[in-house]
Amino acid sequence: MVGDNGAGKSTLLRVVAGLMQPSQGSVTLLGAGTAREVAHRIGYMGHAPLLYDELDGMENLRYFAGLYGLQDDGIGRDAMRTVGLDPDLERRVGQYSQGMRQRLSLARAVLHNPELMLLDEPFSNVDVHSARDMAAVLGRVRDRGKTIFVVTHQSALMEQVADEFVHMAEGKIVSRERVRQVQMSAGSGAGGER
Amino acid sequence: MSAVGVTKSTLLKDLRMEWRSKDAINSMLFFSLLVVVIFSFAFNPTAEQSRLIAGGLIWVAFLFAAVVALNQTWARELRNQVLDAYRVSPAPPNALFLAKVLGNFLFVVVLEALMAPLFVVFYQLRSVGPVWQLVVIALLGTWALVVNGTFFAALSIRTRSREIMLPLILFPISIPALLAMVDATTSILTGESSPDFWIKLLLVYDVIFTAVCLLLFESVLNAE
């Protein structure tokens, strides 16, 4: 989802995530009328990191995993490895670099293996190398059959990953550009022709 | 995870964060300490006068000190917008509220336990009535302060002047509880009357306000 500042991209994402009520209309998500009914099937990564600065990476993930009923430490460790972070790093999140925070924030969003991921500016304030790594992670998650909505200004990073670009302006979708044939079967490659 | 499990993990997380930062407990402790010392030197009361005023002094000091902790409660959740991560999760909203109330209750009870000996020394207090009733009043009164305080702190987190807003809303609604706490404490310290009525009033106040806060918290959490 791309568009200028103030186009309504983040607002749309927050409405879909159930964090805001739509001023008109309704949202149906994974067959449910409210995001809360399918909260365990959705992963949300906000513009802010949504992490506690006073806790280390694993402590953060352990707490958020608990909110989804997940008790196994291995899930948090796997999520950290998926985004290229060391699960044994005992540094508090407040001392992380911006890139590490974004990666950990992504790990928090994928922790419970959601079917639908809503990511708001996941590459903001991240260096080019880290941003490319994160885009590759998203590509691998997409290849496992997950649906990912990404709001970003850096659409070039998503060119190799995205199936479709949705352009927004003044709170409305102004165009949709399908760039890849979507393959729904889990485990299939990126597939399709640009 | 069950509501009890989420409450427990949120409480432990908050205790761990407070243990590391000591933001709330240090602020409360120094504030209470200042009240005890300054009032003691300002009025220099006799033991008899102390018994009459100590109830009010103790609870007003704890009420003001508790506000410091209550403001910290949700500030942590607003930093990095962590509250959104909770809101998009399937965890029950009331589990978050209960964890916050229990955390604040523990902080204020620890503060009271640390400050009580100082009040006794500085104001030459001794109990004429049964001391165990003072413990009951402290527990019921503290719950009354923190349950409302936690709720109204949540209500005011999205306002610009939340540090001012919280006492403005909290103090008027806490007056019945404060009155019961002060009168019950004075009754025990002077031995002039029975504190039973005030203890029952505190109990009813706690039950009603805990129920109302639990009923309304989800709306407050999701208000934008």
Quick overview of this protein structure:
The complex is a heterodimer of chains A (194) and B (224). By secondary structure, chain A is of the alpha/beta class.
Polypeptide structure, described:
The complex is a heterodimer of chains A (194) and B (224). The longest helix of chain A is centred in the last third of the chain and has 16 residues, at 128-143. In chain A, α2 packs across α3. In chain A, the strands form 2 sheets. In chain A, strands 1-5-6 form a 3-stranded mixed β-sheet, with no helix packed on it. Chain A contains 5 helices and 6 strands, in the order βαβαααβαβββ. In chain A, a hairpin with a 2-residue loop joins β5 and β6. Chain A has helices at 9-17, 57-67, 73-82, 98-110, 128-143; strands spanning 2-3, 42-45, 116-120, 147-151, 164-169, 172-178. Chain B has helices at residues 3-21, 23-43, 47-78, 82-87, 93-122, 131-155, 162-190, 196-222. The model of chain B has no long low-confidence stretch (mean pLDDT 90). Chain B is mainly alpha-helical and 224 residues long. The chains are: A alpha/beta (194), B mainly alpha (224). Chain A binds chain B through residues 17-21, 35-36, 39-40, 42, 44, 46-55, 59, 63-64, 66-71, 108, and chain B through 1, 5-6, 9-10, 13, 16-17, 20-21, 76, 79-82, 84-91, 224.
